[in-house]
Automatic annotation (TrEMBL):
Enzyme Commission identifier(s): 2.6.1.19, 2.6.1.22
Pathway assignment: Amino-acid degradation; 4-aminobutanoate degradation
Listed name of the protein: (S)-3-amino-2-methylpropionate transaminase
Organism: Megasphaera cerevisiae DSM 20462
InterPro entries the UniProt entry points to: Aminotrans_3, Class-III_PLP-dep_AT, PyrdxlP-dep_Trfase, PyrdxlP-dep_Trfase_major, PyrdxlP-dep_Trfase_small
Cofactor needs: pyridoxal 5'-phosphate
UniProt xrefs under Gene3D superfamilies: Aspartate Aminotransferase, domain 1 (3.90.1150.10), Type I PLP-dependent aspartate aminotransferase-like (Major domain) (3.40.640.10)
Annotated keywords: Aminotransferase, Pyridoxal phosphate, Transferase
First-tier enzyme category under EC: transferase
Sequence similarity: Belongs to the class-III pyridoxal-phosphate-dependent aminotransferase family.
Length: 452
């Protein structure tokens, strides 16, 4: 079975001849702005593996950019979608009620670590929609116009979320953007001011937030502070829990809602069902969670959850949408959560993270170009620099490593404000043999590329 195979390239190089034909067709039919640098054309996928059009086997460490925590084509999810498809595909939630929508909302209400005992959840189609709706809900509840986001943040590609996103290569030429979005510095501790202790650095980043209140928007006009528990596109940078505790205090003192963007961190990726369980354990739960990606196991679905009093403040018609809570997506999501809980994929994420970090730590000791590794659970970043002293980013090396790894059967992707981080988002159903094979490929690719 493909799900048990190891990476194997049978063509002289990739893309092979069949894949090359389809990639050429893509270049003619699809906008270049949807570009890809990966020489792969998927034929089928199982677990953490995909087979391309030429019969090559690739280990996927990207997982649809965090969508496939449960892996490709999980047979139980496939069956759940088939069963639902035999009944009906769609029933718009504000016209006809279907049980899957209600059951999924009940399930998420029961597990989401937001503040409050009674919760409400609704569904949309994507992470960007989830983030944008979370902002609308915060504004409706607080009656305030502004929000604060952070350096390194990625929240989506709608007009609102492009404005919230820090990296403007995702928004070139798209302005003017909505007003009332202000930015503070995120605690990127690897690149903290020289000579600062971690405690000093956290205070430095908190002072950055206070400067937003001073120079951009007084706190009484801020509806929400929106933060990723672990930044994705920003370089897989975890938010220090002491900083989150301080954010919670700032929000409580000023009537601001704390919104967690769990689009990429959710659904067992970080070693918890939702990463904000770490926040709740530390006594600083968020007010609103926006999530998507792996919730549907590959079928588009996003969700927003908050306590009842917050949701009750939203005027009728302001939230929702045609396809939100689609019946097929709800069926998939219910089965995904059932499997994740039953098979303890959060625990498996912690095991995977330990294996990967042990290897990363060894490389960091041996190689001058490995500046840092970090993350939570199985959401890990490996940062490349020219040398450890200067920490000068090395994105060119990362690009060559990604291409070399692909030739050996490993799919990787970069991230980070400097494009110098390799992200680890491998499906959590990866076998230990596949994991070790992937680490071997990555190490071989690194050593070959630095030897050039």
């Amino acid at each position: 079975m493909l799900r048990e195979e190891l990476p194997k390239i049978i063509t002289p190089s990739v893309p092979g001849p069949k894949a090359a034909v389809l990639l050429a067709r893509r270049r003619k039919a699809v906008p270049d702005a949807i570009g890809t640098v990966y020489p792969t054309v998927i034929q089928r996928g199982e677990g953490a593996m995909l087979e391309d059009a030429d019969g090559n086997y690739f280990l996927d460490w990207v997982g649809g950019v965090g969508v496939l925590n449960i892996g490709y084509s999980h047979p139980e999810v496939v069956q759940a979608v088939k069963d639902q498809a035999g009944k009906y595909f769609h029933a718009m939630a504000n016209i006809v009620t279907h049980e899957g929508y209600v059951k999924l909302a009940e399930k998420i209400n029961a597990i989401a670590p937001v503040r409050g005992d009674v919760k409400r959840t609704f569904f949309i189609n994507s992470g960007a929609e989830a983030d944008e709706n979370a902002v609308k809900i915060a504004k409706a509840y607080t009656k305030r116009p502004n929000i604060i986001v952070f350096s390194g943040a990625f929240h989506g590609r709608t007009l609102m979320t492009m404005a919230m996103t820090a990296k403007k290569s995702y928004a070139l030429g798209m302005g003017p953007f909505p007003d009332g979005i202000y930015r503070a510095e995120f605690p990127y501790l690897y690149r903290k001011p020289e000579g600062y202790t971690e405690e000093d650095a956290i205070q430095y980043y908190l002072d950055s937030l206070k400067e937003v209140f001073m120079y951009s928007s007084p706190a009484e006009y801020v509806a929400a502070i929106v933060v990723e528990p672990l930044q994705g596109e920003g370089g897989f940078v975890p938010a220090p829990i002491e900083w989150i505790k301080a954010l919670r205090r700032v929000c409580d003192e000023n009537g601001i809602l704390l919104v967690a963007d769990e689009v990429q961190t959710g659904w067992c990726r970080t070693g918890r069902m939702l990463a904000t369980e770490y926040w709740k354990e530390a006594g600083c739960p968020p007010d609103i969670i926006a999530t998507a990606k792996s919730l549907g196991g590959g079928i588009p679905i996003g969700a927003v959850v908050a306590r009842e009093e917050i949701m009750a403040a939203v005027p009728g018609g302001v939230i929702g949408g045609t396809f939100g809570g689609n019946a097929l997506a709800c069926a998939a999501a219910l089965k995904v959560i059932e499997i994740m809980e039953r098979d303890d994929l959060a625990g498996r994420a912690r095991e995977i993270g330990s294996i990967v970090c042990n290897r990363y730590k060894k490389w960091q000791r041996e190689l001058e170009i490995i500046g840092d590794y970090r993350g939570l659970g199985a959401m890990l970043g490996l940062e490349f620099v020219h040398d450890k002293k200067s920490k000068r980013p090395y994105p060119e090396l990362v690009s060559t490593i990604i291409q070399e790894a692909a030739q050996r059967g490993l799919i990787l992707e970069n991230c980070g404000v400097y494009d110098n981080v390799i992200r680890f988002l491998c499906p959590l159903v990866v076998t230990n043999a596949q994991l070790e094979a992937g680490l071997d490929i990555l190490e071989a690719a690194i050593r070959k590329c630095i030897a050039k």
